[in-house]
Input
Amino acid sequence: MTADEHLASEIEANRALGSSALRRVAPTVLVSAAGPVAVLDALRFAGYAPSAHQADGAVMVTRAVSQRLRVNAG
Output
């Protein structure tokens, strides 16, 4: 969902997002059968900055899992 119809049109026409199978159901609403993580990742890879929202409209904040290398002191 976006507040901008032109942005929705651009995203819908973006060939890089073809695997997400986005389709328009309202002027500013695109849906996909792909899972939310896959769609968000595809949008980010295509250069967009999407955010995920809960059913009540609150923004979902997730943190990337950081991996640290163990170094043996020696």
In short: The radius of gyration is 17 Å.
